[in-house]
Structure formats: structure tokens, C-alpha cells
């Protein structure tokens, strides 16, 4: 079986460096924030082209604290998309604000700027574009609309570590950028972790206070803050792994290029992206008989995944958004048909070939035995 993801391979490649960094952290006796986390914050800020990085306990924490630092509160509206992990919308709700969803562009699966502008009301305070699967959203158009209406832009860059357009990296387009370091991400920790990027000094200071019980100095709680700090072991691991991120992203692009060139017309492949603005966190094709194709691939020894089975507005926990089936046709069609293939830097050439051959054979067999219905957009 070719696994969908095998983190043991990555660990094996940099085992000595990781274990040395973790052991040094354990010996230091400093296990929350501290020098290991500060070193990673400085390195990641330089990498992203931001003045500040505030390391936190998860990507969800990053989103929540960014919204709070921007002053989002009860009664405000924040616009985002239904094609995302639920954390994007959950973070808005945690602040007491109302999530307002707009459909995605059918080509990129990122926020449709035209639909964004139509959704703005007097209560709108912020917009959270999602760099879905590692592809940058249309930040030029989104930023122009946000500036026109006086809205704060907070990037959900949780899948886009290192994505770049016109010399600007993910996390440096908006007022703040939010990253997740969940182990399976392009830059993954050895557990949970997240970070916020910003070049605004005041926002950075507020974020540091919010993650640590609202205190600037010990035992003086100026804000009603949270316990959302990064632990030192994760900082040490991430500081090691960051040195390899560009190489890993390049390897992911090579896998994606092989899929692009090798997969036949029986499946719908992701639309083309620029050379640097997609870091291929996920390679998701579409097929009208997705579940049958997934089973056939499993039978052929190819593990797959689905990102994501339902758009947020069709999740039971978010039924109160009052957006039922048919509200966002592009997002819904994508969720019905999407299937993610294995993509990670350590995939070998023969494994990539096996995946391509299996997808083509299984899709062709399904098309022959049970012709697909037209995939409506």
C-alpha cells in the first residue's frame, strides 16, 4: 500500500538534527516559549517577510487571536469561504462575530473577489481569504476591495507555508497571516502548533499579550487573554524543519507536475498555477464517481483522502449559518467530487508512477462500466 502520508520518512531524513534539538530543549529546563520558540519566530519572520511572528499553540489559536487583535467582537461580520477546514469559521464564532460565507472561484477554489464585494454590509469588519490546498488566493483583488471598504485582511495561510507571488510570501499580504504547523502540513511540528505573522508593531504586542493571559509583564493582566502559547519542543522542531521547507515544497511541485502530465482526461485535475504561488499541500482531483474511484484505488494499494467531505455550511454544527444545500454551488460540487492523492516530498518515482497508472486504469474502468453523469458547475 502506498500511504497517503508517511511522516516517518521525513523524520528518518533529518533524525539526528531533530533529536539533537529536542534533547537540547529538554536539557534546558525551559519548556514553554523561551529561546527555542523565539529563535523560530525570528527565522520564520525573516522567511515570510514579516516584522513579527507570534508563535501559538495551533492554527486555530492563530486565527482566533488574529481576529481578536483586530478588534472583532459580538455583532461584527467576517467574510470567508465554505471551502475550508471548519477552524476558519469556528475562530470567527469564538469571537462572537457572525461568519458570512461567499462561494469560491471554480478554477482556483479560493475566494471569489466579485462575490466578496457583494457580501459586504455595514457590519462587515474583516475578510479571511483561505489559501486553499496551498494556492494563494487573489490577494491583489481582495486587498483592493478590503481597502476600499476599510476592512482588515487576515490570511488563512494554514496550508500555504512558502507560497509566493511577485516576491511576497503568504502571511505578508494582509494585516496578519495565520499558519498551522499540524504534523501533516508542509512545515509540520511534532504535535500541535501555529503562528501569526504581522508587520504592525501594535498588533504584534497585542497578540503576544493575548496568547499569554493578557500580560505584558508577569502577573499584570491588562487584557482578558488566553493560554495559547507554543511549547518549546515544537519551537525547536520547527526551527530545524524550516531550513528544509523550500526543498520540500520544490519536491511537492515535482510530484504535482508528474500527476499533471500523467493523469488522463478521465479525471479532472487541478487548474494550472503559477510557478511559486502554489505549494501543493494537497493534490485533489475531481471525479463524478469519487467514492467508487476511491474504493478502486484502495483495492489497487493506493491510499487517498478527502479535503473536505462537506463544505462548512453543510456541517451540522454550522446549520445556524442558515445556508442550506444549493447556497454555494461551486463549493458543493467540489465537495461531492474531490479526492486527494498522496503528495509528499519523499514519494519515490516508482510510487508516483504506480499512483498515476492506478488512477488512469481505475477511472477508465469506471467510465467504461458506468458512464459518469455530467458534472454540473
UniProtKB/TrEMBL annotation:
InterPro entries: DegT/StrS_aminotransferase, PyrdxlP-dep_Trfase, PyrdxlP-dep_Trfase_major, PyrdxlP-dep_Trfase_small. One of its GO terms (molecular function) is transaminase activity. CDD domains: AHBA_syn. It comes from the Bacteria. Keywords: Aminotransferase, Pyridoxal phosphate, Transferase. Pfam families: DegT_DnrJ_EryC1. Belongs to the DegT/DnrJ/EryC1 family. This is DegT/DnrJ/EryC1/StrS family aminotransferase. It comes from Paracoccus aerius.
Amino acid at each position: 500500500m502506498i500511504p497517503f502520508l508517511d511522516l516517518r520518512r521525513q523524520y528518518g531524513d533529518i533524525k539526528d538534527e531533530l533529536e539533537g534539538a529536542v534533547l537540547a530543549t529538554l536539557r534546558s529546563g525551559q519548556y514553554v516559549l523561551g529561546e527555542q520558540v523565539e529563535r523560530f519566530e525570528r527565522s520564520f519572520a525573516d522567511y515570510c517577510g514579516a516584522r513579527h511572528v507570534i508563535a501559538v499553540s495551533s492554527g486555530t489559536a492563530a486565527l482566533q487571536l488574529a481576529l481578536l487583535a483586530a478588534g472583532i467582537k459580538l455583532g461584527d461580520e467576517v467574510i470567508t469561504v465554505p471551502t475550508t477546514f471548519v477552524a476558519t469559521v469556528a475562530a470567527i464564532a469564538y469571537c462572537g462575530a457572525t461568519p458570512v460565507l461567499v462561494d469560491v472561484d471554480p478554477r482556483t477554489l479560493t475566494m471569489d473577489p466579485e462575490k466578496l464585494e457583494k457580501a459586504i454590509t455595514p457590519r462587515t469588519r474583516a475578510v479571511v481569504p483561505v489559501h486553499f490546498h496551498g494556492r494563494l488566493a487573489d490577494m491583489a483583488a481582495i486587498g483592493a476591495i478590503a481597502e476600499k471598504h476599510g476592512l482588515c485582511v487576515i490570511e488563512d495561510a494554514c496550508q500555504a507555508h512558502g507560497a509566493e507571488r511577485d516576491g511576497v510570501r503568504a502571511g505578508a499580504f494582509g494585516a496578519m497571516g495565520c499558519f498551522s504547523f499540524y504534523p501533516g502540513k508542509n512545515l509540520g511540528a511534532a504535535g500541535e502548533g501555529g503562528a501569526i505573522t504581522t508587520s504592525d508593531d501594535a498588533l504584534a504586542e497585542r497578540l503576544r499579550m493575548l496568547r499569554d493571559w493578557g500580560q505584558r509583564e508577569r502577573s499584570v493582566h491588562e487584557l482578558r487573554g488566553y493560554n495559547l502559547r507554543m511549547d518549546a519542543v515544537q519551537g525547536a522542531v520547527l526551527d530545524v524543519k524550516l531550513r528544509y521547507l523550500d526543498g520540500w515544497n520544490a519536491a511537492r511541485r515535482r510530484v504535482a507536475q508528474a500527476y499533471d502530465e500523467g493523469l488522463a482526461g478521465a479525471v479532472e485535475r487541478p487548474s494550472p498555477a503559477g510557478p511559486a504561488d502554489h505549494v501543493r499541500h494537497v493534490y485533489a482531483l475531481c471525479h463524478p464517481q469519487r467514492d467508487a474511484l476511491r474504493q478502486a484505488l484502495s483495492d489497487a494499494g493506493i491510499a487517498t483522502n478527502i479535503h473536505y467531505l462537506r463544505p462548512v455550511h453543510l456541517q451540522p454544527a454550522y446549520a445556524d449559518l442558515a445556508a442550506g444545500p444549493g447556497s454555494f454551488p461551486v463549493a458543493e460540487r467540489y465537495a461531492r467530487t474531490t479526492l486527494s492523492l498522496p503528495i509528499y516530498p519523499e514519494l519515490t518515482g516508482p510510487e508516483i508512477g504506480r499512483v498515476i497508472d492506478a488512477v488512469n486504469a481505475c477511472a477508465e474502468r469506471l467510465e467504461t462500466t458506468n458512464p459518469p453523469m455530467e458534472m454540473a458547475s
